[in-house]
């Protein structure tokens, strides 16, 4: 009778977990994705082959028993959860939380950008889970990227406890044949039989380095080769290649003497985890295309939502818009136009607040300082002007030898940069000035720094938040870094084939996006000008911006003004296009302008964006809630 009840119970267990798909197979186990019919939750079922009595004596089932015993007693958000256990015939099935991917897949996926904040989040979650294990006197003994599992919400869980073991007994002798070789601590390679938490900490250090390098740090082919690679690598990373706080964490983990390796609790107190940027929220962590947003397949098309967005129409210019910019708070939107008169608007309701009167030619560039105290403009009338934001009064004027093409405040607003075009025998030049000493009546000012630009003229410009480096985009598609202390070029790259119309920062200033006449927008690393991503269209791109809160970019363009032969929005491609920043895929368009879009900008809070076009209109588009709730299926 008892056997019958037991048999029925096992049959019920098997029926409870409805197989969905096969996930993988190892030497001793097969893993399936399944649905728990009682809860409707998705789970992973690991069916372990116990084998014959002889095989069991060889220890094939020991890992399963060890895993069951430990996971039944361990409960932490960063450890894989064992939900159920049942046996059938010669198999034991373990039911786990379903995890969509692992860190190895994320590292190998070239479409994913791993920022410092992303890496910080993954390592923080790893250390929190590992700290819990060590506090419970358990060594994992097999930490590696494919044992660090990640779900679609960005939660990382440590998995595979087949080699995990209690530690702490001073007389206990352990095997040194643990941990996959590439993540094996030096003492294990030397054959140590007594070891502690240091072996797990070393593995975390190797994983951290792999997140940074995108390849294993010590890929040894044998134990001897592994030791050779370890001793060959030490000392190579420098403060110039990795930040001080990150280097401190790596050096704390990859210590040859296991006694001196820091514990989890000590690592978690290091400055790396409290310094900016903060760890990326789990829901914002990048995931591989095949598993991203699988739970949201039933949601309505985001493209449809974007097309349905109803904008505010700001009409006050008589000619084409050349540039738009928000102030830091986002309550004001500034616009420049070929009609000579920059305007300022309330971004919330589209009401025009004022006009800056004084230029006699097309205004090509504008900027506003972070306190919304000063406003600047550069124009085709060969003048650079500084204005009081509150009164609209001109407080500074510099006459130039040619048109002012770009202008920008430094972070402190005590300095400004502007560039002038080539004209006749006049070269393109870059000027750095002190905004505190400029005077309206003088008409000129001796610059702090004056740099003649050899070759192609400057067509766009950025200034870093330390006031030390300026990045210029040029009409031939080149991008150049300038050291302001030295007044010299640092680095130049050429990834575009034609004029760069616009460049804009991401929120933290680590990356920037370019817009080019060669029909592309491109994402670059700010430090080394490394090309990260490219967004392609059928027409010239005049402007591009990066969302401050989503992994989105918006690009605007259509045709060059001189090439416009029709006002048809369909033929002219006069629409804003939205791309996923990481996957480079277009997911939506917004039409409305009757001419090329010359400038786009995200609101600082990321809840809306604006576009300015050749038609003289500025359009402010506010996203509805579905835009932020939607997850993309790639």
From TrEMBL:
It catalyses: L-seryl-[protein] + ATP = O-phospho-L-seryl-[protein] + ADP + H(+); L-threonyl-[protein] + ATP = O-phospho-L-threonyl-[protein] + ADP + H(+). Pfam families: EIF3I (PF24805), Pkinase (PF00069). Residues 17-273 form the Protein kinase domain. Keywords: ATP-binding, Cytoplasm, Initiation factor, Kinase, Nucleotide-binding, Phosphoprotein, Protein biosynthesis, Repeat, Serine/threonine-protein kinase, Transferase, WD repeat. It is found in: Cytoplasmic vesicle, Autophagosome. The active site is at 142 (proton acceptor). Its main location: cytoplasm. The keyword Hydrolase does not apply. ATP binds at residues 23-31, 46-47. Component of the eukaryotic translation initiation factor 3 (eIF-3) complex. Belongs to the eIF-3 subunit I family. This is Eukaryotic translation initiation factor 3 subunit I.
């Amino acid at each position: 009778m008892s056997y019958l009840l037991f048999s029925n119970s096992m049959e019920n267990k098997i029926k409870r977990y409805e197989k969905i798909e096969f996930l993988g197979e190892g030497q001793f186990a097969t893993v399936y994705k399944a649905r728990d019919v009682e809860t409707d939750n998705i789970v992973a079922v690991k069916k372990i082959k116990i084998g014959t009595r002889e095989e069991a004596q060889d220890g094939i089932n020991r890992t399963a028993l060890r895993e069951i015993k430990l996971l039944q007693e361990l409960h932490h958000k960063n450890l894989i959860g064992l939900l159920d256990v049942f046996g059938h015939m010669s198999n034991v099935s373990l039911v786990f939380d379903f995890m969509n991917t692992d860190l190895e897949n994320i590292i190998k996926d070239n479409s994913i950008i791993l920022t410092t904040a992303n890496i910080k989040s993954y390592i923080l979650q790893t250390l929190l889970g590992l700290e819990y294990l060590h506090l419970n006197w358990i060594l994992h003994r097999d930490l590696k990227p494919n044992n660090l599992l990640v779900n679609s919400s960005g939660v990382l869980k440590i998995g595979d406890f087949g080699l995990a073991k209690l530690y702490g007994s001073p007389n206990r002798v352990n095997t040194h044949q643990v941990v996959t070789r590439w993540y094996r601590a030096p003492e294990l390679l030397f054959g140590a039989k007594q070891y502690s938490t240091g072996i797990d900490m070393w593995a975390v250090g190797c994983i951290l380095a792999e997140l940074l390098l995108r390849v294993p740090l010590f890929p040894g082919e044998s134990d001897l080769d592994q030791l050779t690679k370890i001793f060959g690598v030490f000392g190579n990373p420098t403060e110039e290649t990795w930040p001080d706080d990150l280097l401190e964490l790596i050096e704390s983990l990859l210590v040859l003497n296991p006694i001196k390796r820091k514990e989890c609790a000590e690592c978690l107190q290091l400055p790396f985890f409290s310094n900016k940027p903060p760890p990326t929220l789990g829901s914002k962590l990048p995931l591989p295309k095949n598993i991203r947003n699988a739970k949201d397949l039933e949601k309505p098309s985001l493209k449809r939502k974007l097309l349905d967005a109803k904008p505010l129409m700001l009409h006050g210019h008589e000619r084409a818009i050349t540039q738009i910019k928000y102030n830091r708070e986002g309550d004001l939107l500034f616009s420049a136009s070929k009609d000579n008169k920059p305007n300022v608007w309330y971004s919330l309701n589209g009401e025009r607040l004022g006009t800056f009167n004084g230029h006699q030619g097309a205004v090509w560039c504008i900027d506003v300082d972070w306190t919304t105290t000063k406003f600047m403009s550069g124009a085709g009338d060969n003048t650079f002007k500084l204005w009081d934001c509150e009164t609209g009064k001109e407080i500074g004027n510099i006459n130039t030898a040619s048109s002012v093409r770009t202008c920008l405040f430094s972070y402190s607003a005590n300095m400004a940069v502007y560039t002038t075009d080539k004209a006749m025998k006049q070269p393109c030049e870059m000027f750095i000035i002190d905004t505190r000493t400029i005077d309206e009546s003088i008409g000129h000012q001796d610059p702090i720094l004056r740099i003649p630009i050899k070759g192609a003229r400057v067509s766009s410009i950025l200034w870093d938040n330390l006031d030390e480096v300026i990045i210029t985009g040029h009409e031939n598609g080149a991008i150049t870094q300038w050291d302001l202390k030295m007044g010299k070029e640092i680095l130049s790259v050429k990834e575009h084939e034609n004029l760069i119309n616009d460049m804009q920062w991401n929120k933290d200033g680590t990356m920037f996006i370019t817009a080019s006449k060669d029909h592309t927008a491109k994402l670059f690393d700010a430090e080394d000008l490394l090309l990260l991503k490219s967004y392609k269209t059928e027409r010239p791109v005049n402007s591009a911006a990066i969302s401050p809160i989503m992994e989105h970019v918006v690009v605007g363009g259509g045709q060059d003004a001189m090439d416009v032969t029709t006002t048809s929005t369909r033929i002219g491609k006069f629409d804003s296009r939205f791309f996923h920043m990481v996957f480079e895929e277009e997911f939506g368009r917004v039409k409305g302008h009757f001419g090329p879009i010359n400038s786009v900008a995200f609101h600082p809070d990321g809840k809306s964006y604006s576009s300015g076009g050749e038609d003289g209109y500025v359009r402010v588009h506010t996203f509805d809630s579905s835009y932020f709730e939607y997850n993309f299926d790639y």
